[in-house]
Amino acid sequence: MGERIRKIDEQVQVCILDYRPAFRRLDILRPGYEEMVNVWKILSGTGLKTIICQTAKGHIGPEL
Length: 64
Known about the structure:
By secondary structure, this protein is of the alpha+beta class. It has helices at 2-8, 33-44; strands spanning 13-17, 50-55, 58-60.
């Protein structure tokens, strides 16, 4: 997905939100911090310039 977004514009801002099971899908687990760091690294590896991952511990990005 990151490569497809980069082909449109590498400067587009991408924000990844961790799922917070507040209303309907209480059975879905929130991703861990390390998992969100991994998502950030994967998307950064595609050449996207501005990626922010929102987690319960704070934001990751736009740079590590």
